[in-house]
Write a structure and sequence with these properties.
By secondary structure, this protein is of the alpha/beta class. It contains 11 helices and 13 strands. The chain folds into 2 domains: about 170 residues, Thiolase/Chalcone synthase (Peroxisomal Thiolase, Chain A, domain 1); about 150 residues, Thiolase/Chalcone synthase (Peroxisomal Thiolase, Chain A, domain 1). Bound molecules: oxa(dethia)-CoA (UT7).
Length: about 325
């Protein structure tokens, strides 16, 4: 039997504290004008370091809203896929921590996904495969990031770009009999670009030492221009791949929901594709780049403000460190 897959509910959590570009002007040599013109960012949300807003906490709050929207209970979740480059701890995985916080007692599978900014799309596509083959009924897919912990707040090349936040979706077998379905998907990676965006210190190869801390070499580092070039090309390519696979045309797409890394990347991708800019969802001005959380946050906002309606065709498109990439074409 052909099982259709439906996005049953979504939720987000964005930290209480807002940091504007003007706040950054006090911290590094930059300006609101430079940041907004080059990136489209005006502000970002930053997690508390006192507790209550760890990646698992943000996911907990966002999931409660998603469960409500889906009309489901925590124990209806058969699998948790937690995409993050900033997990609560090294061990156990954050998916297990979240399972316990949600009071899930059905012993469902719980896995973290390390695919950087493409993590949510990776999770959604992997869940879709398992649902379509009948192995699970409902999956909780999460992108939750506390990047503020990993950026060097003295490095203007990176610190202006990122923010914290979380977006989740509950995706499951479509039992309503309506047309909602995941129509096609694409996942990929190209390790040749692994140095474009990395954080080599802090893993098994190079544990953090006093020297790293003194020299501030343990933070995330990025070659912005290289990332920019590959990002636009890859995002446009992804869109064509999923449209081809579903035998759909771009004109039928109601909403393109791209990863929010830079408004100029999004605009260039849109131009390469030839999509109407009105159909592209952009919220980078409010949240900056929240890595795996950008796509589900943007999708949720457009669902709750009424732009995205049931039956519409959505194209989710992501790209990130690795270099990883992924896209999903779905009937919402
Ligand atoms: O999630 C996926 C990963 N992220 C991305 O894919 C991000 C991709 N890259 C980008 O978004 C852009 O490359 C950046 C926003 C990072 C940089 O923008 P750019 O237009 O490529 O600027 P640039 O790196 O070429 O820098 C231009 C100038 C430089 O000065 P000089 O060399 O021309 O004198 C920089 O030093 O701007 C300077 N600059 C800044 N000035 C003020 C760099 N960062 C800043 C800053 N404020 N924050």
């Amino acid at each position: 039997m052909d099982i259709k897959v439906k996005i049953k509910g979504t939720g987000i959590y964005t930290p209480q504290r807002v940091m504007t570009n003007f706040d950054l002007e006090e911290m590094v040599e930059t300006s609101d004008e430079w940041i907004y013109e080059r990136t489209g960012i005006k502000q970002r949300h930053i997690c508390s370091t006192e507790g209550g807003e760890w990646p698992s906490d943000m996911a907990y709050h966002a999931t409660l809203d998603a469960l409500k929207a889906a009309n489901l209970e925590p124990n209806d979740i058969d699998m948790i896929l937690f995409a993050s480059v900033t997990p609560d701890h090294k061990l156990p995985n954050t998916a297990c921590i979240l399972q316990q916080k949600l009071g899930i007692t059905n012993k469902c599978a719980a896995l973290d996904i390390a695919a950087a900014c493409s993590g949510f799309v990776y999770g959604l596509n992997m869940a879709t495969g398992l649902i379509k083959m009948g192995a699970i009924k409902n999956a909780l897919v999460i992108g939750s990031e506390m990047l503020s912990r990993e950026v060097n707040w003295k490095d203007r090349n990176t610190c202006i770009l990122f923010g914290d936040g979380c977006g989740v979706a509950i995706v499951g077998a479509n039992e309503d009999g309506d047309e909602s379905d995941i129509l096609s998907l694409h996942l990929g990676a190209d390790g040749k670009g692994k140095e474009f965006f990395d954080q080599p210190v802090g893993g098994a190869v190079e544990p953090i030492t006093e020297q790293h801390i003194q020299e501030e070499t343990h933070y995330m580092q990025m070659k912005g221009r290289e990332m920019f070039k590959v990002a636009t090309r890859t995002l446009a390519e992804n869109a064509r791949i999923v449209l081809d696979r579903a035998n759909e045309s771009l004109e039928n797409v109601d909403w393109l929901i791209p990863h929010q890394a830079n408004v100029r990347i999004i605009e260039t991708t849109g131009k390469l594709l030839g999509i109407d800019p009105e159909k592209v969802i952009i919220n980078i001005d409010k949240y900056a780049n929240t890595s795996a959380a950008t796509v589900p946050i943007a999708m949720h906002e457009a669902i709750t403000d009424g732009r995205i309606k049931r039956g519409q065709l959505l194209l989710l498109d992501a790209f990130g460190a690795g270099l990883t990439t992924g896209a999903t074409l779905l009937r919402y």
